[in-house]
Amino acid sequence: MTQLGTPTEAAAQPSQPPEPSKPPALRLDGVGRSYGALTVLDGLDLTVADGQILAVLGPSGSGKTTLLRVIVGLDRADAGAVHLAGRVVDDRHSWVRPEDRGVGYVPQEGALFPHLTVAANIGFGVRRGRDRTEAVAETLQLVGLVDLAGRYPHQLSGGQRQRVALARALAIKPRLVVLDEPFSSLDAALRAGLRAEVAGVLRRAGATAVVVTHDQDEALSIADEVAVLRGGRFVQIGAPADLLAAPVDPDIAAFLETGTLLTVAVDHGRAVTPWGDVAVAGSPNLGDRAVILIRPGQIRVHTAPQQTGRPARVTGSEYRGGVSLVRLRAGSDDDQDGPDLLAGSDEPLATGQAVWIEIIGPISAWPAT
Amino acid sequence: MSGTATIVPAPAGDAHPPPDRRRLSLRHRHSHGHSHHRRRARPSTVVGAMVVAFTLAPLVFLLIDAHHAGWQEVHTVLFRARSAMLLSNTGKLVVIVCATTAVVGTATAWCLERLALPARRLLAALVVLPIAFPDFVVGYTWHSTFPWIHGLMGASLVMTLTSYPLVYLPVRAALRRADPEAEGVARSLGLGPWETFWRVTMRQVLSGLAGGCLLVALAVMAEFGAFEILRFQTFTTEVFTEFQFDPAAASALALPLAMMGLLVLAGEAVVTRRTHPTGPTVSRDPVRVKPSTSAGAGVLVAFGGLVGLAVVLPIATLIGWMVRSQRTTLPASTSLAHALASTVGYGAGGALLATVLAVPVAVMAVRRPHTLQRVMERGAYLVQGLPGVVVALSAVFFTTRYAYRLYQSSTLLIVVYALLFLPLALVCVKVSVVQTSESYAEVSRSLGRGPLASFALITVPLIAPGLAAGFCLVFLSSVTELTATLILIPIGHHTLVTQFWAYQGAAAYGAAAPYALVMILVAGIPTLLLNNWFARRATGATGTTGTTLPVLT
User: Fold this and answer.
1) CATH classification of A26-249, choosing from 3.40.50.970, 3.40.50.2000, 3.40.50.300, 3.30.470.10?
2) Domain spanning A259-367: which CATH class is it, in words?
């Protein structure tokens, strides 16, 4: 749905500004990690304020899991420093063991202890006694699994297991919760529902969280802030709305599936597209070729001829929940070749239908490489 | 089955895909890292290295011992005419028994896996039973019933009847893994049934067959008791005899024996490395052909013969001897109870020690799979190539020279059992460790438990099935171990094995029989437990498929 540029759930919820007196829950200063000649993390800087949910978004192999393991204390950084709530937990001189960090960890697939019941799993990290009973009950309530306290992990569904894994991490009242691809093992239908639920639980618990994912929908919907990791570096950090509005490079734009990317000629600050010339936003130093981004929301589709519109035809159409996602090609002739433009339309359009389109500038553009 | 050298190789250990390849491969690169704070070795590696050093000790002591005896002595003993005879005897027997077990084991496996036979499950249970019978007991039942059975012929017969399950089990596992569709495809391409069998079926089971034959070779080379009864001389029987008269000559003779064992072991490593577990991607029900009435009857008669010779005859003979001598020579029940108690005590001690020692080695090999750790882990299997008599000799050498208080102590016997059968425990524990993701312990750490608490609360319960299986395997092997027991048993103590040996040596067959029966019973209980465990594993409760199970005597 992000293709249509609709506002995301998270964007609608304003992130809580950090109190000036309180140190950030997590701070990374130039954190690096290499395995021999292979640099996996390359000087990462990051601040996560108390109560914030941050998503680390990156393709597989970008170093996401290594970053999580460094934060939890299962791996050690070989450059820079990791601070938790203002305290150094990992730098060249000192290192705090994972059991002394108070970072709740939800690994991929949950890793529920198979020989313990749901209640015993959740209570595992809590000191024995009245506190434990209370903490378990409270946490079960929080994730809505009170009825399942006596079950064993193999008797739970995939979604329930993830919720128990989250509850187990939250039961220790952690300073920070980290989740590694928490929804990747679930099927698509379950994923969206559980995502909203997990985000809800984290917010109700007032937890600070770092979620690692390769799924842009997941990152944009769950997080207050998204850090895009590529080749061991953060290439952009920002609120989901900012990321969608101003991706720093075409790769991020493509990764976030924000719209159609094209390499076109530039003439006097205007991009020359098959659908007419369009004004380019910002930077004038584009040279004579540029990569442009046309968002679906910037395209107006008319079914009747228009003075300002350029002729185009529909090459593909997919009807989804009240809007059509359509592919448009320039010209009225069927044999005409060229790139397809992704657009949205309120009324259903048929493949082969002739339409007239307008592109509303200014559009994002980057120098072509 | 002799005490040593009795596992079916578990390519399982290495063939299992690690739960998270990506993470493991990262770790692997980590080994080249030079960061200052990562020099400190992991505790599992340190303890694992110590255990491996312990398992290599017999080999070292053997060399020191030979060195003490003087290389002149070694040279004299090795190059006398008698050694040539022993070598030829050992060689002939290895070749004959490998061939017969290959035929019997493969045929049995193929019939049970590919033919729709009546009472198939019962037959399958019966044909593995001989694996629980000690070779020397089977040798005794044959020789006491048919005194004319001895020499090369007798040794070949007895070893075939006790060792064929070592071929049967891996071949049957290979047949089960093999895609039965391949045979159908071969037929559709114009190959006849025999051509299909040779060119397609045999190809698929070849590595299992070769691995099984190598284990048979190790068993034959290490066997002592059965050959002593059947009056057939090999290197192992000679080492034992020399030990009683000329210990220096014994350790000289042990050298080539150890070398042959290690060579066979190296061969086994090569064969199992070439095993590619390429089973069918989809598990389907095996295709079983219904044989014609006459062919089916023929196969059943053959099975009847095999079970009769390998299972019924030994048991019937033992019972027969007991019934015949009921009133006269049967041992007092107190003597039997005493022998049973010490057998169980020594066996359980050895099993416990071996299982505990196997844990750090398994954890080291699975969790930190760098080259060094892999090499060390393989080192722990070397002891498998050493016949029990060789390990026992090196223990005698070590204690008489450096730790006399341990000589002929219960502790030494238990330590030697653990040493001899550590590879068995290791195979079982390793399978469990491989199947247990490391993230459980990691989560436990993140929840505030230290490394030791995480190990005790999480790792140990999760690998408990492997620990139990390893314990059972070592226990039943120790209970039926003969050579090391005879050499190291503390003076004044008796076990089922030593009592049986003493009585049968004096031709008191009736008095020996009850000890053999109780021995089979005591060894049979862990066999049953093991079977259960393997059966549960094989049904895929843990989601792993195609597990090659370590199988044992």
Assistant:
1) 3.40.50.300
2) mainly beta
Of B33, B446, B449, the CB nearest to A36: B33
What CA–CA distance (Å, rounded) separates B56 from A81? 44
Residue B459 sits at the chain A interface (C-beta within 8 Å): no
Closest CA to A105 of B447, B457, B219, B96: B447
Q: Contact A65/B23, CB-based, under 8 Å?
A: yes
CA–CA distance, B527 with B3 (Å, rounded to integer): 15
Q: Return the percentage of chain B with pLDDT > 90, whole number.
A: 18
For residue B403, the one-letter residue type is: A
In angstroms, the CA B83 to CA B176 distance is 43
In CATH terms, the fold of domain B43-277+300-552 is MetI-like fold (1.10.3720)
Digit-coded pLDDT (tens) for A307-353: 778 888 888 888 777 777 788 887 766 666 778 888 888 878 888 88
Segments making up each domain of chain B, as ranges: 43-277+300-552
Tell me: cis bond preceding A362? Omega within 30 of 0 counts.
Answer: yes
Q: Measured between alpha carbons, how far is B147 from B210 in angstroms, rounded to an integer?
A: 34
Q: Please state, as a whole number, how many other Cβ atoms lie within 10 Å of the Cβ of residue A310.
A: 18
pLDDT digits (tens, 9 = 90+) for A109-162: 888 898 889 999 998 988 777 788 888 998 998 888 889 999 999 889 888 998
- Residue B182 in contact with residue B222, Cβ under 8 Å? no
Measuring CA to CA, which residue among A27, A347, A12, A75 is closest to residue A208? A27
- Picking from A290, A321, A367, the residue whose alpha carbon sits closest to that of residue A4 is A321
Contacts of A34 in chain B (CB under 8 A): 33
Contact A228/A195 with Cβ under 8 angstroms?
no
Report chain B's terminal Cα–Cα distance, integer Å: 6
Q: What are A82's strand-pairing partners?
A: A28, A90
C-beta separation of B1 from B131 below 8 A = yes
For chain A, what are the domain ranges? 26-249, 259-367
Residues in chain A closer than 8 A to B437 (CB atoms): 111
